[in-house]
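Bench notes, afternoon.
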Amino acid sequence: MKNKALFLAPLAALAMVASPVAASTAMARPAPSEEASVPFINHGAIRDWRADGDRVIYFQDSGRQWYRATLMTPAFDLPFVEAVGIQNSGTDRLDRWADVVVRGQHYPIQSFVKVDAPPVKSANAAHKS
């Protein structure tokens, strides 16, 4: 009887781990934000853009929807440029597979998601040194 209890204890533990309830709670992770894309970027689909530091750019499409592009690496010139380029080999879309070009340097996009609007900067933030 004692040997039977030693044999059944690991099976009971295994059954608890493999139960559907345990599996569903282990798989219940927050879903990442859905990646977005803007078609026809070579035909006026981008209306506006704003840099937010050296790794984030907000793009507005012609329908006034905003998107946040997070770069894989910092683009230290980004806060100081007046124009950026977009290069996406073979497609006419702005998405996470595109590169942002800042002063001739290519910066791959890590994520590209829809947002409500870029963050609002206070008037005092513009005057800080």
